[in-house]
Fold this sequence. Notes:
One of its GO terms (molecular function) is (3S)-3-hydroxyacyl-CoA dehydrogenase (NAD+) activity. By secondary structure, the protein is of the alpha+beta class.
Amino acid sequence: MSKYDHLIDQEMVNGHWSWDSDRALLYAVGVGAGLDDPLEELQFTTENTPGLPQQVIPSFATIMGLQSDWMELLGWQKVGLSPVGMVHGEQSVTLARPLPVSGTAHLSTILRQVYDKGSGALVVQETRITLADTNEYLGSTCSGIFAQGKGNFGGPRGPSGATGWDQPSRAPDVKITLPVGLNQSLVYRLSGDRHPHGTEPTRARADGFEKPILYGLGTYGFACRALLRGLCEGDVTRFGHMAGRFSKPVYPGDRLDTVIWRTEEGAVFQMIANGERVVLDRGVFRFRE
Ligand SMILES: C/C=C/C(=O)SCCNC(=O)CCNC(=O)[C@H](O)C(C)(C)COP(=O)(O)OP(=O)(O)OC[C@H]1O[C@@H](n2cnc3c(N)ncnc32)[C@H](O)[C@@H]1OP(=O)(O)O
């Protein structure tokens, strides 16, 4: 029996969350839409382009998964918004249908596991999203938060990171290059992810970064745009599932190459910053069935 076992499968959020068209537009700009080409992604960045109805970038669902205050449940003392050294480790989003441009969702967030990774604890939580008025299932998000320094508590190690994903030996089938703006974190944070390590040098260094970062979920949004562009011709109805592991930080001003290998169900991918470091690894994409 390890110290968090009694909390596993506990529901941490059971409530409503509303968004409107402006919030989805702001999120799109926050994850860089329009930065490399202001005309390329008008379905995400405008609501009034003739013949191009607004669509919501599927990774917007991750913002809905942020509504839980699970750190108190675990008894972790926060400095600002989180314990020092806590970083986003993994993320997935699965959608049964495109997200509406506006709406109210019912969110249910469950603590799935706290793995003991030695150098840290990996906290896995899953959020189920339904439309509040009709109860229609929209999809789910799953996040793994890596709290450095909180490992070695005698808990389960969990699945090994060394298995289950292989980089194909052939050259990538598709490569999408996207720039990160120097003010990217300042825009992205307005979507509701306001951790100071995206803006404050002192906190960024305390959490193990060189300087303020682009938020992990911001990076995830860039990857989602790259996959939509490279595999779906920008059409969100084709999005089914996307997962990846944050392996190195992304900084404002970086250039992000998403390298994509097609598979039977969709693709596997990696994101590489400035041609030198893999920042999102073990990426998996699936088309909607
Ligand atoms: C609130 C935060 C918001 C943010 O947005 S932060 C910004 C986005 N996130 C990042 O930039 C994080 C980048 N990644 C890292 O810095 C490192 O990566 C980690 C600190 C997360 C881990 O590094 P290390 O302590 O050196 O771990 P190891 O020695 O490589 O592996 C130890 C075990 O941990 C698993 N692991 C490693 N990285 C991750 C990860 N990113 N997510 C989940 N698990 C991870 C491995 O597999 C292994 O476990 P096994 O031996 O059982 O395989």
